[in-house]
């Protein structure tokens, strides 16, 4: 050891430290070129994958199967086509949706009827009044039952008797709209998204005529021309049954119990009614009704409002009956047809990036997390940080520079990501307001860096940190997509719990990206732009909450990470460090003398030591009692025990080393391998904490004042040159 010439150098300036650290970081990145290339390629790979999938979907959607149907209307003699025409009349059900419809067809208004096997009957478990038994089901001839209630029973019954006008003459299908408006037609098909095509009139389906009593001659198959579309129709009679119930609650109860259910055998059992009427307080002066109808008659749960298409006839039945009741059976109120509004031709659109984007992009953005984390843990594992501190790097500059460095790295990465995504035309990026996106990513990358700093305190091995980091990335993405997403979309799930889940940064990222995706997707479908600043106040938009959560979390995590780092730099395991930091204030106040009492137990050893050692020990004891400025280093009974692992006994590396080195002296330490030279130097430079005892460098304790000691010290570690060299200057 050298306590040399006397000219003390001050700590390096900020710019020097920044410069050196930056060079070191760049060097590190250059060495990890392969990893860096992979990380840069990953987003590009995912984006390209998205584009390819999107292309495949677009091609599939663009197939004639989904394009408005066309047909040749004017074929030349040689078989070539002179004129093709496109439109609804040439389309299948799949194609209709994309046709332009300047004059929508008129359709008779129908009532929704339950399918033959689920129409209400009287069974043992549900013995409803007035219903036929099981036999009608076997024959497929069950009536369509309607429940009726009201304040005035006689009035309600006489009105409901008029609900299904009986057919007086055979149906005349040349004027099918007029003919069907005078009676009640119904269908058990599921309605379409829009009433551009009424599925009841497509081949293979049956049009039911609801009658008070069925006559056998009504069943027929008719061919007729509905405007432009030639139709083939099976017409059948179905008996309409009006059942009086005493109160609204009874009607509710019977409707409820009849709901289709999956029974043990796996077969569906149902006892469904077609509709229910409550004539409330209807009298001669006013018609007052409420109607029960089933809005779930649709394959597509997202569009339950479709079933409303078959409600107009139910209303008309009641008003028609009422006017007959008031003015006699000669007066009618007819609903001739229903007709949708005209529409232009559309193209099916499906934006995959908005749908899958949230998951893919969560992975891409989070990918930087393990990079930052492993870097930080690597510095710790390789003791690079301590080395740098020995060479004059202070904590403040280290943090500022490292943070700025990773921020710059993340910002460039995110910027490239947005630019690349926009360039290849992903709606996810182009549809949403760029300023919101930039603010969101800006906040998130800050949070992510803070999180990495925080997490780094808990790892000491790069391998474990890497594994945990990547598990976090892929796990939080998948959990976001398959758990959080369902909670978000489930309106009954408490919003508070979603906020709690979003405290996990991966989830808040997923939620934000999910919102971008949703806005881009619905924007694409409706031909408008995605998320704007004004949308932040939409009640379903979780973006504002996410932004707030992330900012708060960042403000908490960063100081916490800094604190943990400070504590851990004192050496030893984290738990121990936490304890030390709590006791820290007391210990700093303690004087040298206190430590000289701490080693009474080692007296026995002293007796057996050789005279030189004993003499040195006495010098140290004397110095501790009367501190003198003449000694650069005082080692007081410094001991290091490595605890045995896997059943091996503990190994005593340094045994109670006492040493006093005057200033201006050069001290060399010789010894065979395993004598404890390196352990001693490691303790002196703060790499490992002493098991007991301590040492003082210029009066500063190596257990607590390492940061100040570093400004006076230089070390050349063994693994580079085969010998340790430690230099303290005064
Ligand atoms: C029920 O309606 C009938 C027919 O309009 C009427 O004659 C009778 O007074 C009403 N009964 C009550 C209790 O209002
Ligand atoms: C309403 O319609 C759905 C779908 O067809 C059916 O499962 C359900 O049983 C119906 N509910 C009632 C009360 O009839
Ligand atoms: C609804 O489902 C039935 C049977 O599951 C099917 O035959 C029918 O085509 C579907 N309708 C629509 C509009 O998808």
Automatic annotation (TrEMBL):
Coiled coil: none annotated. It holds the Pfam family ABC_tran. Its main location: membrane. The keyword Protein biosynthesis does not apply. Keywords: Membrane, Transmembrane, Transmembrane helix. The keyword Ribosomal protein does not apply. It comes from the Eukaryota. It is found in: Membrane. GO terms for cellular component: membrane. The chain crosses the membrane at residues 39-57, 355-378, 398-426, 438-458, 464-484, 496-514, 545-564. InterPro entries: ABC2_TM, ABC_transporter-like_ATP-bd, ABCA, P-loop_NTPase. One of its GO terms (molecular function) is lipid transporter activity. Residues 655-719 form the ABC transporter domain. It is a multi-pass membrane protein. Residues 283-563 form the ABC-2 type transporter transmembrane domain. SUPFAM superfamilies: P-loop containing nucleoside triphosphate hydrolases. Belongs to the ABC transporter superfamily. ABCA family. CPR flippase (TC 3.A.1.211) subfamily. This is ABC transporter A family member 7. It comes from Triticum urartu (Red wild einkorn).
